[in-house]
């Protein structure tokens, strides 16, 4: 009896709490909607000087990208149809100006600011605030601390590691060539670049090229790359709450956990192994330095190093930035060479001459003038 009486004020209070909660949710939704509509209005106004392909009123141009191998052709077609630049909408709010005229591209490439807040928001929970995402003072400090990582002496031993990875890939291709069946080249190149970056960034031999699909970390990296791509194209997933509560968001968090615990484990083990070493020179005398060594030894003018979180962010950033970009670049170069056998022939002859009977590349870039030019031109075309 006493208990029931005590419950009365709470019971009568419940509807009020519900109402209040409902009202707060409504205000939040209206506010978000208002911000979204304002963003849409601003984007349409800002890009009104540029005509572009017509899009769906809600989905924009998302459905035009079918991921069936024709997407790039479509962009080329639009590039011819709409001079200089054309806007594309991804969902009702997100609008990109697709710039393709060299004069416009030059202006953008010459500036370092601002960073792409929208797209980077989707990867930050995986790669943290590394060089790619960070800005201002934090970016500046990290950029300076990481500069030794790009020194010629540090990069040189990477050539052997990369060439070993490329050899593994070519061996696989040789067995494919014997069957005369066609196969998707990008997958192979992507595994090769991931293999290379793992060896160079933290001396990790994953055997991912020969045992793809079995390594939990490799699987997590691919899962994360796919889900980020999917999130970008699915506009309700642009909202954190909707994405993280969805099955895809659940998979994303799970893959993030796998990737992070792997990186943390590698950092922990290396820290333990480096305990006795005080100087990078001592390590370099025994073995080649990798990117993780540089990160762990980096010190600013106050002798402050990077925090564990910062180190993890930089390693994860390089893992992401370092493999997918190069895989796309290399695949596109191979495609262009296949389309232009006359240039392919010149490059082949130049490389055979530079190899001078050996089967491995060392630091030969300066001898490969035409091949280097071809790589540069193709990368420019791929932008
Ligand atoms: C063909 C290959 C590559 C292309 C086309 C490419 C493209 C780019 C572009 C366009 C940016 C600027 C992004 C922005 O300002 O928002 C960038 C930044 C960056 N890339 Fe790459 N990248 C390639 C290879 C690599 C590799 C191999 C690595 C690492 C091993 C790497 C690491 C980074 C990092 C750390 C940043 C951020 C730099 C900073 O803000 O200081 N990239 N990349």
UniProtKB/TrEMBL annotation:
Q: What taxonomic lineage is listed for the species of origin?
A: Eukaryota, Metazoa, Chordata, Craniata, Vertebrata
Question: A Gene Ontology MF term for this entry?
Answer: iron ion binding
The family annotation for this protein states:
Belongs to the cytochrome P450 family.
What is catalysed by this protein?
androst-4-ene-3,17-dione + 3 reduced [NADPH--hemoprotein reductase] + 3 O2 = estrone + formate + 3 oxidized [NADPH--hemoprotein reductase] + 4 H2O + 4 H(+); testosterone + 3 reduced [NADPH--hemoprotein reductase] + 3 O2 = 17beta-estradiol + formate + 3 oxidized [NADPH--hemoprotein reductase] + 4 H2O + 4 H(+)
The Swiss-Prot or TrEMBL record lists the needed cofactor(s) as: heme
A family per Pfam? p450
Keyword Transport set for record? no
Assigned keywords, A-Z:
Heme, Iron, Membrane, Metal-binding, Monooxygenase, Oxidoreductase, Transmembrane, Transmembrane helix
Read off the InterPro entries from this record: Cyt_P450, Cyt_P450_E_grp-II, Cyt_P450_sf, Cytochrome_P450_Monoox
Reading the lineage from the top rank, the first entry is Eukaryota
Q: Where are the transmembrane segments?
A: 20-37
Organism the protein comes from = Scomber scombrus (Atlantic mackerel)
**What is the name of this protein?**
Cytochrome P450 4B1
Tell me if Transcription is a UniProt keyword of this record: no
Q: According to its UniProt entry, what is the function of this protein? A: Catalyzes the formation of aromatic C18 estrogens from C19 androgens.
């Amino acid at each position: 009896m006493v208990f029931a009486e005590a419950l009365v004020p709470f019971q009568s209070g419940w509807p009020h709490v519900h109402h209040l909660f409902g009202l707060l949710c409504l205000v939040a939704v209206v506010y978000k909607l208002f911000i979204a509509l304002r963003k849409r209005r601003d984007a349409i106004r800002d890009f009104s000087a540029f005509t572009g392909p017509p899009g769906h009123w809600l989905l924009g141009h998302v459905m035009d990208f079918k991921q069936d191998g024709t997407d790039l052709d479509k962009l080329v077609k639009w590039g011819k149809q709409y001079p200089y630049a054309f806007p594309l909408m991804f969902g009702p709010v997100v609008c990109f100006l697709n710039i393709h005229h060299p004069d416009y591209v030059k202006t953008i490439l010459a500036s370092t600011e601002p960073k792409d807040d929208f797209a980077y928001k989707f990867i930050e929970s995986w790669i943290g605030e590394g060089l790619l995402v960070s800005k201002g003072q934090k970016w500046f400090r990290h950029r300076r601390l990481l500069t030794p990582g790009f020194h010629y002496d540090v990069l040189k031993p990477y050539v052997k590691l990369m060439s070993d990875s490329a050899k593994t890939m070519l061996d696989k291709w040789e067995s494919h060539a014997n069957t005369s069946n066609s196969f998707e080249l990008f997958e192979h190149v992507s595994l090769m670049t991931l293999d290379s970056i793992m060896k160079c960034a933290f001396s990790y031999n994953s055997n991912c090229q020969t045992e793809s699909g079995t390594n939990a970390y490799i699987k997590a990296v691919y899962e994360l790359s796919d889900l980020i791509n999917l999130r970008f194209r699915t506009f309700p997933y642009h909202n954190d709450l909707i994405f993280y509560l969805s099955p895809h968001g659940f998979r994303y968090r799970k893959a993030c956990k796998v990737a992070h615990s792997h990186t943390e484990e590698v950092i922990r083990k290396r820290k333990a192994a480096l305990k006795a070493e005080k100087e990078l020179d001592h390590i370099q005398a025994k073995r080649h330095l990798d990117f993780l060594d540089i990160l762990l030894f980096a010190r600013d003018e106050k002798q402050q190093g990077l925090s564990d979180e910062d180190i993890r962010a930089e390693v994860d950033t390089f893992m992401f930035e370092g493999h997918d970009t190069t895989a796309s670049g290399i695949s596109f170069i191979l495609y262009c060479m296949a389309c232009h056998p006359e240039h392919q022939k010149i490059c082949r002859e130049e490389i055979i001459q530079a190899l001078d009977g050996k089967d491995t590349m060392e630091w030969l870039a300066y001898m490969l003038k035409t091949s280097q030019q071809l790589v540069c031109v193709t990368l420019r075309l791929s932008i």
